[in-house]
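Example (one chain per record):
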Amino acid sequence: MAWKGLHLSRPARLAIADNQIVVAQDDGEVRVALEDVAYVVLDAPHATLTSTLLSACMDAGVVIVSVDQRHTPNGVTLPFHSHHRQAGVAAMQIALGEPFKKRCWQRIIVAKIENQAAHLESLGRDAQALRAMAKLVGSGDPDNVEARAARNYWRALYEDFTRDDARDLRNKMMNYGYAVARAGVARALVAFGLLPAFGVHHASVTNAFNLVDDILEPFRPFVDARASLRAKDREKNSELTIEDRRAMAGVLLADAVVGRETVSLLVASEKAAESLVRAMEGSSAALLRLPAFLAKKGLPP
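Predicted structure:
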């Protein structure tokens, strides 16, 4: 089972040999078993790969993330749908009724707010207000409790913080981590025969990843936790370093709780996708299994 992510921050030549990804750089060569890799982040301006490797990655369900000149993830390469019940799952997804989708969104937002609260508690902050808000989320979140919880969360997490400030190091790191987590969720949904474009809440006609953005919500506090840890005692408008990008690219390997298991976020994304299919089949949003933040006060995620 795939359990690794590769983050390439220096010039490299990638190829496939003996079912291994071969990473050749000026100072040597590294080989990684293809079956162990879930995602590759090409965060280097002079990284090249062969078409044979690209094809092998698609066959193996490996996601490839590209970045722009500012080292911001700007694209993801996903395999064609290869689930054995692709047409059946897709038909079931497209036919979902609004009541079911609203109950799924309710469950997603409750999980997100509870994870935000757990993150604050891991830092020794008061999260009683967030815990109370999580209980107020109705089917479809008609009162937009999510937005109210977000305002409370950011105020409790940071002083002098604006989420859309592109110069802020914390935003730079979170945006990088969100993009990597988004790729991991997309990979999982496709693997279980789901169509990323058709969401349970997000419904933009210009977004090919509406369902991905739905399921991603409870994953965001894990990214926030890693960013807040790295940004501590740093200048607000510092540049994003290679070490920052490498750390945020590894967010899918952070621990999470799903049910009674402690697993990586990568595995949690797979469990979420699998459980969504089961929820659709059983017409029960209660079957949706989402990651819970592992709150160990004083310990990094």
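Caption: DSSP finds ten helices and eleven strands in the chain.
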